């Protein structure tokens, strides 16, 4: 059966989805251009035509995954409800105890970013956008009088640092902390940062 002809953008999207899946399955260091090509039944040359090197493919795959996560975050924070409800929904979704998928991918990405400048830039940009989005909704809640927070940017940094650290504990070390305990810590940290009673 003949393969459906895709536009350049559709082909790139297909290659990026396959790359993300292969990175999740094999890890950044072990994944090869041929793994991505084989997963789609295309040639290595086609993958290289679009990305030229494994490093560029990996960086683009992480950027692709990051955009997907950021779109979900924007959706949660853009709902028509209180800032507190939006913030709680975002933090609970992002937490490694929530519905956010891909923590293994991000732990892999952070490790690889130590040696890959292009991947480091993607990870840093994603981190900045997450913090900025959380900081913005925290500032909205302060302005609306929903809670107190003298430093929304600092609060966003502390919350994401906690979530990222718990992700490492649950993803890389498994069993060092239960999901229920991790969720409790996240809820307590959010309440403490915003001067709220615990739910």
Can you walk me through this structure?
This protein has 199 residues and is mainly alpha-helical. It is built from 9 helices and no strands. Helix 1 (8-26) packs across helix 2 and helix 4 (54-77) runs parallel beside helix 7 (117-143). The longest helix is centred in the middle third of the chain and has 27 residues, at 117-143. The protein is elongated. The N and C termini lie far apart (57 Å).
Order of helices and strands: HHHHHHHHH
Number of strand segments: 0
**Average of per-residue pLDDT values:** 88
Helix content: over 70%
Kindly, what is the distance between the CA atoms of the first and last residues, rounded to a whole number of angstroms? 57 Å
**Rg on CA atoms, Å:** 19 Å
Number of helices: 9
Backbone shape: elongated
What would you call the structural class?
mainly alpha
Notable traits:
mainly alpha, 74% helix, 0% strand, 199 residues, 9 helices
Structure at a glance:
This protein is mainly α. 74% of the residues lie in helices and 0% in strands.
Q: What is the topology?
A:
Blueprint: H1 8-26, H2 33-40, H3 44-51, H4 54-77, H5 83-94, H6 103-113, H7 117-143, H8 152-173, H9 179-194
């Amino acid at each position: 059966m003949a393969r459906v002809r895709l536009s350049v953008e559709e082909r790139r999207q297909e290659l990026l989805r396959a790359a993300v899946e292969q990175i999740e399955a094999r890890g950044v260091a072990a994944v090869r251009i041929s793994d991505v090509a084989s997963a789609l039944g295309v040639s290595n040359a086609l993958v290289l035509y679009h990305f030229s090197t494994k490093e560029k493919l990996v960086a683009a795959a992480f950027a692709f995954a990051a955009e997907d996560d950021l779109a979900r975050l924007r959706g949660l924070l853009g709902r028509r409800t209180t800032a507190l409800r939006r913030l709680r929904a975002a933090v609970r979704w992002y937490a490694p105890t929530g519905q956010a998928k891909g923590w293994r991918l991000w732990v892999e990405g952070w490790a690889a970013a130590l040696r890959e400048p292009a991947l480091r830039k993607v990870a840093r940009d994603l981190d900045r956008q997450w913090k900025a989005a959380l900081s913005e909704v925290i500032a909205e809640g302060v302005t609306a009088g929903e809670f107190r927070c003298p430093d929304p940017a600092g609060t966003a940094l502390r919350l994401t640092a906690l979530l990222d650290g718990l992700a490492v504990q649950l993803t890389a070390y498994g069993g060092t902390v239960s999901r229920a305990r991790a969720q409790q810590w996240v809820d307590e940290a959010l309440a403490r940062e915003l001067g709220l009673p615990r739910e």
